[in-house]
Amino acid sequence: xxxxxxxxxxxxxxxxxxLCGILYKKVRKGxxxxxxxxxxxxxxxxLEDEIPVVICAAAxxxxxxxxxxxxxYSNTDANIxxxxxxxxxxxxxxxxxxxxSKLREINFKVVExxxxxxxxxxxxxxxxxxxxxPLNFVxxxxxxxIHQHEKVIYLDDDVIVQGDIQELYDTTLALGHAAAFSDDCxxxxxQDVNRLVGLQNTYMGYLDYQKKTIKDLGISPSTCxxxxxxxxxxxxxWKHQRITKQLEKxxxxxxxxxxxxxxxxxxxxxxPMLIVFHGKYSSINPLWHIRHLGWNPDTRYSEHFLQEAKLxxxxxxxxxxxxxSVHNDLWESWFVPDPAGIFKLNHHNS
Length: 350
Hints:
Mean pLDDT is 83; it is low at 24-42 and 191-195. This protein has twelve helices and nine strands. The protein has a domain at 47-187 and 226-256 and 268-333: Spore Coat Polysaccharide Biosynthesis Protein SpsA, Chain A (Alpha-Beta Complex), CATH 3.90.550.10. The protein is of the alpha/beta class and 350 residues long.
């Protein structure tokens, strides 16, 4: 009887020890999960403070992206996260350029863009083949590249930022708008510059109004266009409205019907955006997108006007790292030499 009582006491003790062990594990696991959740819960606050800037770095013009990044980083105290997008064979060179130059201090991610997503969506014939480069279409796929951020800035590589990028990021997007652009009919630059022959600022310059599909849109050909080289985008609205799918639909239609030949004033990346975002976008402060600096090498802006500009865009054929071009001194002041020695300036510029 005494032996049985002793056995029961031992069993009870073992049971208590076991229960204590289980309880300890549960409490400890709860603490670990709480700590992990605590780390995650801080992330959204950190993300709110972060300004994501997407910029492409194409093989032949990588120096452009680096100059743009340098100008942005040097003119703000904001916490910028650069998403530098390239094709697979350029990723290591992008990283090397950043890590072995004055840009080594920036916060960045190198992102691969897979051109296979464009298969069957681009017409092969073009009067300007450079417009068909895969990275021109990265702006269509922002939600596939950016997963954590609510608001994103996209910039073409041929820009220089002279203002604080925080101002651009603070652009207000109206309810239901997935993006903000600069209107081509509201260009302060045109008050300062001689008439640019052939400059397109309406839908007629981008879409072929002889095609029934375009006529059926019901958009007046005199409607003011916008420039998608600078975009402030709301990722939630973009995904909700399935913007990427809509853009792909119009790319496919163009393959079948040639709705916006690149022989027109615009490019093959601008036209589908004009259709999809028609009447559904907010406006960017005009000083945050002074463009057409690459349109005509014989046309110059006043120095005073250029000093007031927050962002300069050399859209057009005449790039500031090449010859001939205008106001290339403003661009070259931000140039970051290529550690590999591949990208070089054309110093014939006057």
